[in-house]
Amino acid sequence: MTAAQKETLGFQTEVKQLLNLMIHSLYSNKEIFLRELVSNASDAADKLRFLALSNGELYQGDADLHVRISADKEKNTVTISDNGIGMTRDEVISSLGTIAKSGTAEFFKNLTGDQSKDSQLIGQFGVGFYSAFIVADLVTVRTRKAGEEKGVEWQSQGEGEYTLEEIEKAGRGTEITLHLREDEKEFADEWRLRSIVTKYSDHISTPVQMYKAEVPESEGEDGEKIPAVPGEWESINRATAMWTRDKSELS
Q1: Fewer CB within 10 Å, N side or C side of the chain?
Q2: Angle formed by the axes of helices 13-25 and 101-110, nearest 10°
Q3: How many whole angstroms separate alpha carbon 57 and alpha carbon 54?
Q4: Where is 153: in which H helix or E strand?
Q5: Cβ distance 136 to 177 under 8 Å?
Q6: Cβ-based neighbour number of residue 110 at 10 Å
Q7: Is the model's pLDDT at 242 over the cut of 60?
Q8: Class of CATH domain 6-213+225-240
Q9: Is the distance from CB of 71 to CB of 188 less than 8 angstroms?
Q10: C-beta atoms surrounding 31 within 10 Å
């Protein structure tokens, strides 16, 4: 597959069933998509950290692992990115186009019809990525495996097929962009996203970051100039294990 070629592939039957379930059965718990995608991104960082113990070159000079979330209200998109292990083309197909049949059968067997309980099963059975389609009608994944030269772009509307294309990607890791449905614009709001991270992902050990915009130079009441504060990525999760926190903080 050359850089100019785009390949269209069909989802496995089990994935189609799962997408249908996600979109039509878990709509009252929409915000779980961010919990699942942040969790996956953190796992990718953990995998790289583990592999780098025996092969430090995988870091390629960038050992500051993180998950980053950004929103664009004009484009109505949310992007979750990481600089973790990344995926090859074959890994993209196996991770995003198919599901282990045994795992899928178990997942469907354990469904209760209670949306709150069922949303907890998503991560347990490794199918959290597909929750993106609860709020998005188009999902684009750009990824490059640590140590590989080329990247891969995966794209789907969640309707039975997806496309794959070889791409140039500067850094390793994975970037997932959700093109939100028209009625899901609330998730393009940065404060809404921050609140979801605080609710579900505060305990994740990998820093989860959002961009804090630059504060321009201003003038104080006494006429004194207040210098500008440059924009920066800031961690919004406290990255402390839940069991070390006071019970009152977890209620």
Answers
A1: C
A2: 30
A3: 9
A4: strand 151-156
A5: no
A6: 13
A7: no
A8: alpha beta
A9: yes
A10: 18
Confidence category of residue 245, pLDDT binned at 50, 70, 90 = low
- The alpha helices in the chain, defined as continuous H runs, are 13-25, 32-51, 89-92, 101-110, 115-124, 190-200, 247-250
Angle at 137 (CA atoms; ends 184, 67), nearest 5 degrees:
75
User: What is the pTM assigned to this prediction?
Assistant: 0.85
For the chain, what are the domain ranges?
6-213+225-240
Measured CA angle at 96 (ends 146, 118), to 5 deg:
120
Please give the structure tokens belonging to residue 146.
């640590």
Pick the closest to residue 83 from 175, 3, 167 (CA basis).
175
Structure tokens at 34: 């961010």
Measured in whole angstroms, the distance separating CA 71 from the mean position of its chain's CA atoms is: 12
Q: Are 171 and 64 in contact (CB under 8 A)?
A: no
Q: How many angstroms separate the CA atoms of 175 and 40, rounded?
A: 11
Q: What is the spatial distance between Cα 148 and Cα 167, in angstroms, rounded to a whole number?
A: 12
Rounded Cα distance, 149 and 89, in Å: 12
- The Cα 124–Cα 120 span in angstroms is 7
| pLDDT one-digit tens code per residue, 25-56 | 776 789 999 999 999 999 999 999 999 999 99
Q: Which helix (H) or strand (E) holds 175?
A: strand 173-180
